Amino acid sequence: MKTATFFIRTIIGIILISMSIAYFFNLVPELENTENFKAFHVGLISSVYLMPLIEIIIFLCGISYLFGQYVVLSNIIILPLTTNILFIDFFLNQNGLPLALFIFLGNLFLFYAHWKSYKHLFHRKSVMHFD
Amino acid sequence: MRIATIIIRSLIGLLLLFASISYFLHLFPEPPLTGNMKTFNEGLKASGYLVTLVKIIELICGLSFVTGKFNKITYILLMPISVNIICTHIFLAPEGIPVASFLFLGNIFLLYSKWDSYKGLFTA
Q1: Best interface-test mutation with B: which of A41, A129, A131 has the largest number of B CBs within 10 A?
Q2: CB neighbours (10 Å) of residue B35?
Q3: Which domain holds residue A103?
């Protein structure tokens, strides 16, 4: 279990870091083969902030996974991104589906591996800490 | 402090319920968009799933905020959405900044009000 966690964490870390480096140095090949994917991509670029924000978060989480620091926090921060990568590849770009699936399931596995850190967030009754 | 938390939580919950229910029931005609906002919106629609996913999450968070159940997890769940709402408004639609910043700052305040529950996530 420990070895599996280590391997999955490191592999996902390397994938995330190389994704963000490829973006920042413009190494990404043109992938837009369908009309919808193109429209989506143009929309993201026109928002100005979204792509850099995503790539910075991916880079930071990749570093965190690679070195095994603050993994509990990075899991939560990266979850919205892996969900959206999975959905985009499922709906618009089936070529990337295996990689997206691997990242998403790996993220879920890391949640499971650290489950005892998250358990208390799911309690129905919340405790007020101010009083 | 406790009263302030309840007021802000309920206001944000109502705002989220309003936003999601009016989307699902088509209560309002879509305002005409221009320039980058239009391109951005068309891009989101072209993805096929994104707007629906966001609105479902808003509905879940709104219900949880109004009723006060499962708040610890829904405060985190809303965070990516409020970050994107405020960034979209800052860069593309400055007229919506007041509401967006209320949502964003309110969300941060709510996270802060339960900070003890999140401390455990920051262990190295």
Answers
A1: A129
A2: 10
A3: 2-25+34-114
Decide which of B97 and B123 is more confident: B97
Residue A43 in contact with partner chain B when CB distance is under 8 A:
yes
A92-128 CB burial, b ≥16 within 10 A, e <16: bbeeeeeebebbbebbebbeebeeebbeebeeeebee
CA–chain centroid gap for B26, Å, is 19
Least Cα separation, residue B102 to chain A (angstroms): 20
- Residues on chain B touching A128 (C-beta within 8 angstroms): 2, 5, 113
> What is the full DSSP assignment across A23-62?
HHTT-PPP---SHHHHHHHHHHHHTSSHHHHHHHHHHHHH
Global ipTM: 0.85
DSSP state letters, A54-110: HHHHHHHHHHHHHHTSSHHHHHHHHHHHHHHHHHHHHHT-GGGHHHHHHHHHHHHHH
Does any CB of chain B come closer than 8 Å to the CB of residue A63? no
Q: Tell me how many domains chain A contains.
A: 1
- For residue B73 the two structure tokens come to 């997890």
Q: What is the dihedral of CA B27, B33, B38, B43, to 10 degrees?
A: 0
Q: How far is CA A58 from the centre of its chain?
A: 6
Query: Does the residue A119 lie in any domain?
Result: no
Q: What is the pLDDT of residues B89-120, one digit of tens each?
A: 999 888 889 999 999 999 999 999 988 888 88
- B42/A43 CB distance under 8 A: yes
